[in-house]
TrEMBL record, chain B:
<dbReference type="Pfam" id="PF00072">
    <property type="entry name" value="Response_reg"/>
</dbReference>
<keyword id="KW-0597">Phosphoprotein</keyword>
<dbReference type="InterPro" id="IPR058245">
    <property type="entry name" value="NreC/VraR/RcsB-like_REC"/>
</dbReference>
<feature type="domain" description="Response regulatory">
    <location>
        <begin position="16"/>
        <end position="128"/>
    </location>
</feature>
<protein>
    <submittedName>
        <fullName>DNA-binding response regulator</fullName>
    </submittedName>
</protein>
<dbReference type="GO" id="GO:0003677">
    <property type="term" value="F:DNA binding"/>
</dbReference>
<dbReference type="InterPro" id="IPR016032">
    <property type="entry name" value="Sig_transdc_resp-reg_C-effctor"/>
</dbReference>
<feature type="modified residue" description="4-aspartylphosphate">
    <location>
        <position position="65"/>
    </location>
</feature>
<dbReference type="InterPro" id="IPR036388">
    <property type="entry name" value="WH-like_DNA-bd_sf"/>
</dbReference>
<dbReference type="InterPro" id="IPR001789">
    <property type="entry name" value="Sig_transdc_resp-reg_receiver"/>
</dbReference>
<dbReference type="Pfam" id="PF00196">
    <property type="entry name" value="GerE"/>
</dbReference>
<dbReference type="InterPro" id="IPR011006">
    <property type="entry name" value="CheY-like_superfamily"/>
</dbReference>
<dbReference type="InterPro" id="IPR000792">
    <property type="entry name" value="Tscrpt_reg_LuxR_C"/>
</dbReference>
<keyword id="KW-0238">DNA-binding</keyword>
<dbReference type="GO" id="GO:0000160">
    <property type="term" value="P:phosphorelay signal transduction system"/>
</dbReference>
<dbReference type="InterPro" id="IPR039420">
    <property type="entry name" value="WalR-like"/>
</dbReference>
<dbReference type="GO" id="GO:0006355">
    <property type="term" value="P:regulation of DNA-templated transcription"/>
</dbReference>
Amino acid sequence: MSAELDAAAVRVDAARARSTSGVRPAPVTGAPVWTAPGPRTPEAAAAGRAAAAVARASDRGARIAAIVIALAWHSVIGLPAVLANRSELAAPGVVLAAWVVVAAVGVLTGARLLRGDPLPAWPLAGLLLAVDATVFAAAGERQLFTAANWVWSTLGWFFVLALWGRRVTGLLALLAAHSLIALVAVVGHGQTAPADLARFAMYVYGTYSLPVAAFAGSAVIAALARERAATAAATHAMAAERDAAERARRERRERLALVSGAAEAVLAELADGRADPADPRVQRRAVLAAAQLRRLIAESDDVPDPLLHELRAATDVAERNGLPIELVIIGKPPPLPVRTRRLLVDPLTAALAEAGGWARLTVVSGPDEVVVSLVTPDRGEPDATGPPGGGGVAEDDGGRVDRLDERDGEIRWTQARWRR
Amino acid sequence: MDAGPVAEMSGGRPVGVAIVDDHPVVVEGVRAWLASEPRLTVLATGDDPDEVLRAAPEADVVLLDLRLHGQMALGKLAELSTAGRRVVVYSEHTDPETMLAVLDAGAVAFLAKHEGREHCVATVLAAASDRPYVPPALAGAMVGDPRPDRPVLSDKEREALLLWFQSMSKASVARRMRISEHTVKQYVDRARIKYTRAGRPAATKAALLARAIEDGLIRPEEIGIYRSQARYDRPTP
């Protein structure tokens, strides 16, 4: 045995070289395990997306209404009038062809609006204005103010479809252009009698009022819905943030309680003079408290292998107290929640604090099992602090942890075994 | 250690050992370890396996440092094992992959340099009689073997390996498992014998297996595992 004890120092150096080869970040005291979301941008973007979805949904009804009005008016009122008054029109073929063109535009824009695809608004508007001028010219003076000149009444609705979702000023500009074309046609056809001009004014009012009202109304409704949805999303985001902050605070307090529990009692007794620093039992309690503090600090470090990192933190303290430790690691532990890691590491931390002579710490990991074991000479002393919980079984979310703490006169064997 | 089988094998004369290491201080240290055991005698030492074995062709066991002049001597190890030389590899490289590769190459045993005199003597004595000896470090590598084609160990064999690796005391393992120390050793050795099917076939692996059957450590019908593996290794027509 003595030869082995001599070799132990060499062993520890080798073990330490193995165990500390990884980068160890500086410990950050009191850093929360959970980090609150810093920048608000992802939440804001999500809220924006939600608001847009609500606006889209409430806008859909208005779109369908506008499409139905435009196409129904175009086919139920416009088409029969054209067909009935074919002989009266100056160029019936041209008027009919223009009707077909506008019907095609209506179907195309309607389909794209329902699918939510973008529309080439201004080219469509240009096309509609060209059709407008053509039909006014082709209708002839006799049919200028009749239903056969269908552009008067119907075209406004197609302007609404083409400019859907845009500012209302665009629609007003288009309707103004439409009125101007009509005025040019009225003057060009020589229909300048006061009664004709009055009719013109009436027609202009008629073509403006309904489409503008529908267009503006739908825009207002969509804007309101978007605003409401954005408000609701912002409220939700704020509540979630508050919950998260509350959780982080609770975890910090729990950790603080753990830390205080670890060191407070022994420090207070030392300060009062009730505990004697020369008493080996007090020394062991101090070592245990230091090891627990060190492990709690290590727990919040962001490292690839938190379990091994926490075990190394526990061995560090013992090594600094002059205990030669051999740490052998086989396999890579799977990610384990902090509670499971505590169940695995705590019994070993306690046993390490009481160890004397030498210690062998082994970790064997597979995807479904992690076994941590500490073997130290059995010094036959009564438990000064005792391992937390001693032996036993603890269940956690992803598996169970079996803990054993045995002395057989030769060795003290502490083992914690997690199984998925 | 069991003196009987060794004496029987070498006809009463001590086991001849050849040490191959490129550090004279290690050679001297190992020689001193082995000198404390009368059943062992060091026949030759040096840093070149071929030269050492020319000097002592009758050596029963070769203690080979895995890293010679900065090179991993895995190729040389496979060559010696195929030729039937009982090689005990000892190294400071105790990562599990290296240890398992050493077993695959045909070494009779693997010994970590820090494992000390007792394990060294026990390993060499066992190797001389083609018997397995599994020091704790090797047990750890076997129990944590992540390879998909690793030998299938029984629960008891695996548990014995794990506890032996953890505690380094067969007496403690026996108490923990509530079995005799002898049974602990059997479980550990059976696990080691199952590893003779891993990797390329070698004369040393066949010898280990044959002795295990002779000793009743493993049942003859379990040889099938080994044969099928050998057939698998043969080139397919």
